[in-house]
């Protein structure tokens, strides 16, 4: 039985494209569009997997 691939090699640009497509698709109201709730759930899971930079030394100032 085949197994799922658990390692993906996606660039940051690829992730931005996927996120933009999900946002656009969730706004459409056609039969082919995915459910807005499913799109938002997937966008949330993608966001939670991101690694944000925060320096270990010194005070962190955002912006």
Q: What structural keywords apply?
A:
63 residues, mainly alpha, 2 helices, 46% helix
Describe this structure in words.
The protein is mostly helical and 63 residues long. It has a domain at 12-48. Helices cover 46% and strands 0% of the residues. It has helices spanning 12-27, 36-48. Helix 1 packs antiparallel against helix 2 (36-48). It is extended, with a radius of gyration of 16 Å.
Short description:
The chain is mostly helical and 63 residues long.
Number of helices: 2
Helix content: 40-55%
Average pLDDT reading: 79
Write down the Rg: 16 Å
Which of globular, elongated, flat, extended, rod-shaped describes the shape?
A: extended
Uncertain runs: none
Q: Biggest sheet, open or closed, and with what strands and sense? A: none
Report the structural category. Answer: mainly alpha
Number of strands: 0
Proportion of residues in extended strands: under 5%
Query: In sequence order, what are the helices and strands, one letter per element?
Result: HH
How many angstroms separate the termini?
Answer: 49 Å
Draw up the topology in text.
Layout: H1 12-27, H2 36-48
